[in-house]
Amino acid sequence: MRLLLINPNTSASMTEKAAIAARAVAASGTEIIAATSRMGPASIEGYYDGALAVPGLLSELRERRTTGYDGAIIACFDDTGLEAARALCDVPILGLCESAVATAGFLAQRFTVVTTLERSRVLIDNLIQRYGMGGRAKVRASDIAVLELEDAASGAIGKLRAEIERALEEDGAEAIVLGCAGMTDLARELQEIYGVPVIDGVAAAVKQAEALVSLGLSTSKRGSYASPLPKPFSGAMSNFAAKHVPTLT
Amino acid sequence: MRLLLINPNTSASMTEKAAIAARAVAASGTEIIAATSRMGPASIEGYYDGALAVPGLLSELRERRTTGYDGAIIACFDDTGLEAARALCDVPILGLCESAVATAGFLAQRFTVVTTLERSRVLIDNLIQRYGMGGRAKVRASDIAVLELEDAASGAIGKLRAEIERALEEDGAEAIVLGCAGMTDLARELQEIYGVPVIDGVAAAVKQAEALVSLGLSTSKRGSYASPLPKPFSGAMSNFAAKHVPTLT
Amino acid sequence: MRLLLINPNTSASMTEKAAIAARAVAASGTEIIAATSRMGPASIEGYYDGALAVPGLLSELRERRTTGYDGAIIACFDDTGLEAARALCDVPILGLCESAVATAGFLAQRFTVVTTLERSRVLIDNLIQRYGMGGRAKVRASDIAVLELEDAASGAIGKLRAEIERALEEDGAEAIVLGCAGMTDLARELQEIYGVPVIDGVAAAVKQAEALVSLGLSTSKRGSYASPLPKPFSGAMSNFAAKHVPTLT
Amino acid sequence: MRLLLINPNTSASMTEKAAIAARAVAASGTEIIAATSRMGPASIEGYYDGALAVPGLLSELRERRTTGYDGAIIACFDDTGLEAARALCDVPILGLCESAVATAGFLAQRFTVVTTLERSRVLIDNLIQRYGMGGRAKVRASDIAVLELEDAASGAIGKLRAEIERALEEDGAEAIVLGCAGMTDLARELQEIYGVPVIDGVAAAVKQAEALVSLGLSTSKRGSYASPLPKPFSGAMSNFAAKHVPTLT
Amino acid sequence: MRLLLINPNTSASMTEKAAIAARAVAASGTEIIAATSRMGPASIEGYYDGALAVPGLLSELRERRTTGYDGAIIACFDDTGLEAARALCDVPILGLCESAVATAGFLAQRFTVVTTLERSRVLIDNLIQRYGMGGRAKVRASDIAVLELEDAASGAIGKLRAEIERALEEDGAEAIVLGCAGMTDLARELQEIYGVPVIDGVAAAVKQAEALVSLGLSTSKRGSYASPLPKPFSGAMSNFAAKHVPTLT
Amino acid sequence: MRLLLINPNTSASMTEKAAIAARAVAASGTEIIAATSRMGPASIEGYYDGALAVPGLLSELRERRTTGYDGAIIACFDDTGLEAARALCDVPILGLCESAVATAGFLAQRFTVVTTLERSRVLIDNLIQRYGMGGRAKVRASDIAVLELEDAASGAIGKLRAEIERALEEDGAEAIVLGCAGMTDLARELQEIYGVPVIDGVAAAVKQAEALVSLGLSTSKRGSYASPLPKPFSGAMSNFAAKHVPTLT
After folding, report:
1. Hey, which residues does B200 pair with through a beta bridge?
2. Distance from the F171 Cα atom to the nearest Cα atom in chain D, whole angstroms
3. How many Cβ atoms from other residues are within 10 Å of residue A71's Cβ?
4. Average pLDDT, stretch A96-124?
5. Which residues, in sequence order, are CB contacts of B99 under 8 Å at separation 6+?
6. Half-sphere exposure of F163 (CA within 13 A, CB side)
7. What residues form the membrane-spanning segments (chains A, B, C, D, E, F) (predicted)?
8. In whole angstroms, how far apart are CA F248 and each of A23, A189, C185, F67, F89?
9. What is the pLDDT of residue A129?
């Protein structure tokens, strides 16, 4: 099984970190193909960055179909471009937020997502409401810039831990979800410290992708994820007109 | 007051139709500046088209700031790129769906949105749930391709009318919202035929934009619509790195 | 365009304040006809006052139809008698709360309504849930009596500002809605102080009324706002039996 | 125990029918004091009628306190004036809709309310959403005018039965709630015919009132039902200014 | 009227306390038959205890049918086994939580349930969401073990009072629901201290059972509470195969 | 990895069918240990059967800990005893409904669960609301008794297919979830016939269990799934008093 792990931002160091996390949990027969978007922002912090990351993400999904993959993971907790990617491809596409909160739901009845900046808090809260977890999950921002997570001297981990502690105390959180792909290396350690499940979206998404592929399940092409209709595209998007990415057989 | 009416698809004929509708309802002091995206799909039918329309939309918003506008309307019923545009700009940004359902809410307690293709139905239903109208509004698809609305011989209007009649009979609809920018020229006539309010998103959005501008209100820059943070962008998106579009003063 | 601005309480000083606010934002062709109810409580604080204000409100709507108006605004943030007025009249009827929260929804994803007394807090929270903003808006009471807002020496403004500050800090509010018609003169100044949109219901309702009238839209007469059926009325209500208020033509 | 059963419309025949239903289920120590409003519409069909019925209702509640009652029932399925009455009085106040759906909730997980006119359908559906039963209950209109229920030759019962049959078949209803005070005499017979619980609001409200009174529980005076504040009232409402109706001791 | 009050835990002292509370509020013609489960845990604290209490509860319901009862109350605030009991029996079955929150809903628009241990908090919150009170009620744990309530020296009452005070201050609670059958003797006193309605589930359930029985209403046997189908049972459950408990006639 | 697959009903033929389905999708290193409850009903149809199946289920979970398992699956679509099992055990516990609807949520925005009897429809609908999928999923009953699925001549498959066709046509379903463990052998074939994802709960739960175990995640022991407190148990339940089932190390 070949899983494409696409980082929709253009920071190769974050791709590398996510790839390490993904390979650490992948089954023995799973190959993780890590890819970094070549078009868009260096990090995704809010709606503007997210929107401009999508064409680069879709481009990778389309171009890499020739070498083949059985499923793909969008390595950003904002689930950037998730619906568009599902419409484009036949193979299963997983987002980190959707995978992580579904996973948390099997382990705890109430949990808290701890993300980076305040500007992402409501964005993630909206995702969670849409995924049906609005009555079970809270979202907290810890005032960390995404790229600070790459810098051990930034104090980011201290801020993250303080916010987790507030979640346990004030929210009655039974589990913690790490709300940024850049936190993926911290999950194990934080789980040991706090004695509650700590869920990393990258790891969760790898297992969900493996599950769907091995079950022979793929994105529905009936209704809202129907394959794109053929039509002209203009300007820098003109090479996007081709049809959807079929399942390899 | 100058309002930018951006068609996020690249079909100039649809821009023209929307501009006519906008100018027909604009106040005497309002100038409608119609713009067609130069980058992206010829029509927006589903998530894939929508995602690829956003950079072209944001590009118009940025480039036209030098000539100035006081508010902008995204002329697609899917509210394509609405959050990203709000994060980018200080001036008010209106979407058709959000404007139309808020308007309908002042006139009726239960109403139905009639859109084009089945693939857009759930997308719009998700918007409506997010805008808080899930308990009051239903969405129906009438099996019309967006560009068929440009072709009088397509039978599109007959399909649309049949679906409106089902909404009145089966949903107990008290008003009808037309769920596609391409239907904007039909609202008046349908309202006369059926004797219930028929709301067109283009007209609704023009009035909401005028309202916000004249009240001196603008998009909040605190929280989820905070202005984009400066950061590097790569590839075809590299010219998007500049910061947000300030309010003209 | 003639808009009737009815204060459903009997305090002419509040009518005057609301009329000033309304005229300050009305379009050049809009005439604001201010009216004070002649029957009911001097201020509306809670359900009892609200219920007893409705006949006076409906009476004004009926009696003034001979001189004509194209739309009406009920100048109380509790949206007192809004549904009954919509059933009575063909012309658009706007409430302050409904108008203000719809307006806030175009500018911010999360916002807080700051009202006067604790007894009004749940009443407004119920309105907001019904208008579909329950997941996006909080309501706070600032422990001010409505008529204290008329008295500069009452300390009311200090209490209001303290509550706004708590909303920004504790709720993560991206915008503030002023939850009483008596606060209408404070919106501009508070917006400058806090740097977030501050929405006043009177101003919002004027623009919504102008929008609906200029779009040729009116209250649906199908379903829950159908015109009153002719029937006998007894006692002090016996002069209310006449049928609904038709749109002027 | 003395329970005041107030018919908020002015039709004495409906009061009589409701009183018979109330006395049929009242406990041996319960006295039902039937009262007909002397001010307002002859029947309540929609928001306009409802609003104009409230002062008459509140007037009865106030005037009859001298002779005393321990609880009161508002004998209209629209729960006309329920919050205002609760604010006015210390004693428990029950509405038919609230009582009936709470009762139905103990007997069935899904049920349908069958009411009279289409114009009341959404009004009742809004009540049900507010009472928290929106996910469990549907509302259907059977196209019967309220006063047709007083006329055996009107065909009203046939329409009502047809609608109940649709509720059982199409909604999977496990119980039926009769959505009009004028249907109170039909509950027993319909229950026998259809073999599912058929709940009448008058009977349900009597038992809820008895329950609250015998438990020594009364309306909370903290928060949204706090007693009216003393203030001037004008016009025909000027005699309403007095404070709330205290519990008899 | 004979009401079976079953304590689903095996602590006879708690049964006794609940029986005293039940008899204190029962109508003159109501006989309370108190029963203690003979199979299961000594107290119910969380899902595991609750699940293992159900067969003992169902067993009592079945065995006691020969001596007859007209309705039954499950004397645990977790509403342990409520749906299974309703499927088993024709007579009305009441739970404490469902009865108490329905009762509170007639008296207050916002209220707080104060329960014992943190492990029961989310369980009760889930019940409340399901009963439709999620938008109106909060749940708080006061860190009291159930059996501490039997021990005056445990400090349990002090903890309970502190939590009620937080509910009044921080939640804006208009009423308090006591969230454990073991608190039934405290309601009256706490109501006097705090001046808001304090609702005890045992008392509320007795009155609801009396109401349903006297109205001739019983659990719907159509749909989700249909009587058990005959089928083989194995092991210690083999004596449970008999069909449902019919209404006495 | 050793996964315990417990059939909570006592029909060994259904266990065998579920075990075949589980082994067909299990990863190469996963051992499926199939177990049939020895205590309770032969099939689970409604709340009564479900409640009486739980002690047998918990008994298996406890007794088999000596031979060890890393996770467990409760092989009934009603998620019978799921919370109690999670409180008992440290290892992950998966239910079929929760696993299947989470899986469907990755593939489709709207889907329909097709179950057996009408009496299970509302039960499953309640689960789905609680799992947050109420706005996305419908439930349909196909009027099949569970054990009919074991009998090729029963016509059960024809009924099931007819209901799936209604789901596609009337609900706009984008995917189908099979709502009974006894349908597990039909998923592949139905998926080929209808061209939409068809999700079987047994297969979905196996992959979710593998995912959680391989990620080192386990049920939270903080809050609502905290391990049972030590306490006396009486009667046939007296051997249940021991504490929770620890994770094997």
Report:
1. B178
2. 14
3. 28
4. 97
5. B201, B204, B205, B207, B208, C106
6. 25
7. none
8. 25, 20, 68, 10, 11
9. 96
Tell the burial category of B70 from Cβ atoms under 10 Å away from its Cβ (0-12, 13-18, 19+): buried
Contacts of E84 in chain F (CB under 8 A): 47-48, 50-52
Q: Amino acid identity, residue F64?
A: R
Q: Which of D92, D196, D216 comes nearest E106 by C-beta? A: D92
Is chain D touching chain A, with at least 3 CB–CB pairs below 8 Å? no
Question: Cα(F111)–Cα(B1) distance, rounded to whole angstroms?
Answer: 46
Beta bridge partners of E36: E7
Q: What angle do CA C84, C87, C88 make, to 5 degrees?
A: 85
CA distances from D42 to C230, D33, D52, E206 (A): 10, 20, 11, 38
Q: Give yes or no for a contact between B82 and B116, defined as CB atoms under 8 angstroms apart.
A: no
Enclosing H/E stretch for D7: strand D2-7
Residue C46 contacts residue C230 (beta carbons within 8 Å) = no
Amino acid identity at F164: I
CB F14 within 8 A of CB F182: yes
Q: What are residue F220's DSSP bridge partners?
A: none
The residue of chain C with its CA nearest to that of A129 is: C135
Q: Residue E163, exposed/middle/buried by CB under 10 A (0-12, 13-18, 19+)?
A: buried
Say if the Cβ atoms of D197 and E188 lie within 8 Å: no
Instruction: With residue A139 as reference, give the H or E element that holds it.
Output: strand A137-141
pLDDT digits (tens, 9 = 90+) for B137-191: 999 999 998 888 888 888 999 999 999 999 999 999 999 999 998 899 999 999 9
Detail the DSSP E strand segments found in E2-75: 2-7, 31-36, 40-41, 71-74
Burial class (CB in 10 A: 0-12, 13-18, 19+), C135: middle
Residue C46 C-alpha from the chain's centroid: 14
Helix axes F12-25, F201-214, angle to 10 degrees: 60
- Per DSSP, helices labelled H in chain B are 12-25, 47-63, 82-88, 96-105, 118-130, 156-170, 187-194, 201-214
Query: Using CB atoms, which chains have 3+ pairs under 8 A with E?
Result: A, C, D, F
Instruction: Please count the CA atoms within 13 angstroms of the CA of B72 that sit on its side-chain side.
Output: 36
- State both tokens at F9: 């009903």
Which of E106, E132, E216 comes nearest D133 by C-beta?
E132
The DSSP H or E segment spanning B35 is: strand B31-36
Asked if E72 and E59 count as a contact pair (C-beta separation under 8 A), the reply is: no
Cβ contacts of A110 on chain E, cutoff 8 Å: 122
Q: CA-nearest residue of chain F to B121?
A: F172
Burial class (CB in 10 A: 0-12, 13-18, 19+), E29: exposed
Whether A174 sits inside 8 A of F210 (CB atoms) is: no
Q: Is B235 on the interface with C (CB under 8 A)?
A: no
Closest residue in E to F120 (Cα–Cα): E224
CA distance B192 to chain C (A): 11
Q: Does pLDDT of F129 surpass 70?
A: yes
What span, in angstroms and rounded, lies between the C-alpha atoms of E95 and E111?
19
pLDDT digit string, tens, across residues D205-226: 999 999 999 999 999 999 999 9
- Per DSSP, chain B holds a count of helices (H) and strands (E) of 8, 10
Of the candidates F190, F185, F159, the one whose C-alpha atom is nearest the C-alpha of residue F173 is: F190
Q: Which CA distances in Å does E140 have to A243, C215, F88, F238?
A: 54, 50, 24, 31
Domains of chain D, each with CATH number or no CATH: 2-95+204-240 (3.40.50.12500), 98-201 (3.40.50.12500)
Q: Between A25, A224, A225, which is nearest F215 by CB?
A: A25
Res. E147: pLDDT tops 90: no
Residues 6+ apart with CB under 8 A from E191: D216, E197, E198
CA-only gyration radius of chain C, Å: 17
